[in-house]
């Protein structure tokens, strides 16, 4: 079989660099029952 890997980049990383990718989350649940 042909085990050749291909890598391509269409410049998406440069486009998404200016986008705010952080996500704000709220805590839902009682502190004693929330998973760590």
From TrEMBL:
Top-level taxon of origin: Eukaryota
SUPFAM superfamilies: Protein kinase-like (PK-like)
GO molecular function: ATP binding; protein kinase activity
Gene3D superfamilies cross-referenced by the UniProt entry: Transferase(Phosphotransferase) domain 1
PROSITE patterns per UniProt: PROTEIN_KINASE_DOM (PS50011)
Residue runs in coiled coils: none
The Protein kinase domain, residue ranges: 1-36
Protein name per its UniProtKB record: Protein kinase domain-containing protein
Source organism per UniProt: Nymphaea colorata
UniProt lineage: Eukaryota, Viridiplantae, Streptophyta, Embryophyta, Tracheophyta
């Amino acid at each position: 079989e042909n085990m050749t890997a291909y890598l391509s980049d269409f410049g998406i990383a440069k486009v998404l660099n200016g986008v705010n990718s952080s996500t704000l989350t709220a805590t839902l649940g009682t502190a004693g029952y929330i998973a760590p």
